[in-house]
UniProtKB/TrEMBL annotation:
<dbReference type="InterPro" id="IPR029068">
    <property type="entry name" value="Glyas_Bleomycin-R_OHBP_Dase"/>
</dbReference>
<protein>
    <submittedName>
        <fullName>Glyoxalase/bleomycin resistance protein/dioxygenase superfamily protein</fullName>
    </submittedName>
</protein>
<dbReference type="Pfam" id="PF00903">
    <property type="entry name" value="Glyoxalase"/>
</dbReference>
<dbReference type="InterPro" id="IPR004360">
    <property type="entry name" value="Glyas_Fos-R_dOase_dom"/>
</dbReference>
<feature type="domain" description="VOC">
    <location>
        <begin position="1"/>
        <end position="122"/>
    </location>
</feature>
<dbReference type="InterPro" id="IPR037523">
    <property type="entry name" value="VOC_core"/>
</dbReference>
Length: 124
């Protein structure tokens, strides 16, 4: 039934203007706005809708993962742009905030609405 539909994902934020600045300027994504909604235009024609929600509660899980060829370079660049990386008690991260304890190298951060995102090293 839905095998040929172009499904898309979405998530909420409490401030569309702050989200637009963060995703567009800080992360460098192509962002468009229409009817009070944002569309994040990701590589591979994978659009994501961002919608305002007055009683927004941040997701308690990672909503977007950004694979990169060099996680150290990506974390350094994001840090220069003011992004702070999360630290979790059960996952020991290095000084940069990168978890190197098994599995892919990964670092978590949040958008202005508190939603969790990650940057992770692409497999070699």
């Amino acid at each position: 039934m839905f095998g040929s539909t172009k499904a898309f994902s979405g998530f909420s934020v409490d401030d569309i203007a702050a989200a637009k600045a963060f995703y567009g300027e800080t992360l460098g994504l192509r962002v468009s706005e229409r009817n009070g909604l944002l569309t994040l235009h990701l590589a591979g024609d994978r659009d994501i809708i961002v919608y305002p929600k007055p009683d927004h509660v941040p997701a308690t899980f990672t909503i977007l993962n950004f694979p990169v060829p060099d996680i150290d370079a990506a974390v350094d660049e994001l840090t220069r742009k003011g992004v702070r990386f999360e630290r979790y008690d059960n996952l020991k991260a290095d000084d940069k905030g990168i978890f190197r304890g098994g599995g892919p190298l990964i670092a978590w951060f949040t958008d202005p609405a508190g939603n969790v995102l990650s940057v992770l090293q692409e497999p070699a």
